[in-house]
Structures are given as C-alpha cells and as structure tokens.
Amino acid sequence: MPDSPRDSAAGGALPPAAVALMLLLCLVWGLNTVAMKVAGQGIPPVLLAGLRSLVGTATLLAWCRWRRLGFGAWRRDGTLPLGLLTGSIFAVEFIAFYVGVGLTTASRAIIFIYGAPFFVAIGAHLLIPEDRLTHAKAFGLLVAFAGLLLAFADGLLVPAGPEALLGDALCLFGGVLWGMTTVLVKASRLRRALPQTMLLYQLGVSAPLLLLASPLLGERWTLHLTPLVTAAFLYQAVAIAGISYLAWFRLVSRYSASRLAAFSVLSPVFGVLAGAVLLGDRLGPLFGLAVLLVVAGLWLVNRPAKAA
C-alpha cells in the first residue's frame, strides 16, 4: 500500500487483499486475548495498557525512522486537536474495558465490547455519505453477532457477581468509544492524515494518560516478570500496538469503516480457538455453528450492493 492514504472504494465491498489483511489482523488480535491473560499474571491491567502504548510508540518511531517515513504536516494540517482527542478517547476506552473486565465475566465483557461494529455502522451511516447502512449490512451484522453470542453461550450462562451490571456497562461504554474513534478518524480531517500519524496520536497520547490512571485506580506497580509474561507483553506492545494498529489505520483510511469493523467479531472467535490450542480451554458444543454464523454474517456485510 502507498503511504499516502486514499479513499479508494470507500463505500464498496472490500477487495480480496483487504479481506485477507483483515482476517490476519483478527487472528493477531484474537491471540492477544491469550497474551492479555498471560501478561496480566505479572502486570496490573491499566499499567499493562499504558506500558503497551509506551513501547508501541517507541516501536512506531523506530519503524518510521528505519523506513525514513515522516508524519506529514501535522503541525499545520489541523489534525492535532482531533488527534489529541482520539488519543484521549483511546485511553478512556482501555480504562473502561480493563476495569469492566474485572467486574463482570470474560464472556459478557467480550459480548459488550464487540458491540462496537454496530456503533461504527450507525455512526458511518450518519456521518459518512459513502458508507450507508443497507438492509443487507444490518442483517449481516445481526447474523455475525448472533454467532458471537452462540460462541460464548456457555460463559453467558455462568452466574455473575453483584457488580456485573457495572462491568457490563463499562465494557459497552468501551465498545462505544472504540466505534467513536473509528468513525471520527474516517469522518473528519484525520482521514487525510498519514496512518503512522493517526497511530502516533493514539499511542503517544494514551501512554501518559494510562500510566497516570493506573495509580489513581489503586494499582500497585509491582511487577512479576517471567519469560512468558515478558513475551506476552512484547507481543501486545510490538505486534499489536506497534504493527497491527498501523495496518488497521491504513485500511480505515482507504475502505468502508463499517465493513472493516464488522470483521472484528472474528477476533474473539480466534481468541477462543487460541485458548483451546494454547491453554487447553474447552470449546462449546455449538462453536462450529457459531463460526458458520459469523462467516455468513460477514459475507452479507461485504456483499457488493446491487446496482440501482
């Protein structure tokens, strides 16, 4: 892909190369679920998010220096205020999600946070003329989300604690912020910024905010680093924050935000598979049907619109 973002086929069906890259990103993000569990054994969660953004920022700067890439005219193009806003939203999103996960069950947290594609679809419909919500896309989102519900049906039936409703609300709020960030990038002048500039805004701004929020939320900066915890953290900081997010912003700058966001429901599905393979987690009896529903929903979302 060229370094200058364009809106090629902004509202149309995703081309095969974009679909393949999104599938790879969803696999990488799904493995992140396992990495979070492992890294969380030695690093407090909000501190983990802050350190991830900090190392991700360093990785991005090193990569851009190596590739001799600049960050564009960010001082003069009017994107700085919006960039600071998206970075702040990014930080609050992770605080809401990490705190929410601690109050509710993992399955409920995943269901609520992955409501984000619906918020992206609604926001894109209202603010991005070329990315309208059609009946087929809406039905496809519902089918894919039904598959997600089925994949986590066992976990949803487990009784939750008395603070679960607050945890659910925080995770849902995190999903709203996730969707808001995606739409803001696509619907504002940020769409003209270079992908590396958009990522620097998010990582560079969120790192100090998350590191400040960690002690304010009562976290103790006591680390229990083992080789496995360190490897899981570096996977999140380098592979997720430093590389995969850059690829994501490149896609968002070029293609339909709602079609791209719909693929995110595959991430927890890949996470379940990774947990089964790497951690020995049990797959539910309806998991295969759940995957078929998710795939069918994504096909409906990405199906080319019929000519009028």
List the main descriptive attributes of the protein structure presented here.
71% helix, mainly alpha, 308 residues, single chain, 13 helices
Structure description:
This protein is mostly helical and 308 residues long. 71% of the residues lie in helices and 0% in strands. It contains 13 helices and no strands. It has helices spanning 16-39, 45-67, 80-103, 106-113, 116-127, 135-151, 153-156, 164-187, 195-216, 227-252, 257-262, 266-278, 287-302. The longest helix is centred in the C-terminal third of the chain and has 26 residues, at 227-252.
Brief rundown of the structure:
With 308 residues, this protein is mostly helical.
Which SSEs are present, and which pair or pack?
Blueprint: H1 16-39, H2 45-67, H3 80-103, H4 106-113, H5 116-127, H6 135-151, H7 153-156, H8 164-187, H9 195-216, H10 227-252, H11 257-262, H12 266-278, H13 287-302
Helix pairs in contact: 1-10, 1-12, 2-3, 2-9, 2-10, 3-8, 3-9, 4-8, 5-8, 6-13, 9-10
Overall mean pLDDT: 84
Helix residue percentage: over 70%
Radius of gyration, whole Å: 19 Å
* Element pattern in H and E: HHHHHHHHHHHHH
**In this structure, how is the largest beta sheet organized?**
none
User: What structural category do the secondary elements indicate?
Assistant: mainly alpha
Number of strands: 0
Query: Count the helices. How many?
Result: 13
Percentage of residues in DSSP E strands: under 5%
Alpha-carbon distance between the two ends: 31 Å
Overall 3D shape:
globular
Runs in which pLDDT lies below 50 for 5 or more consecutive residues are 1-9
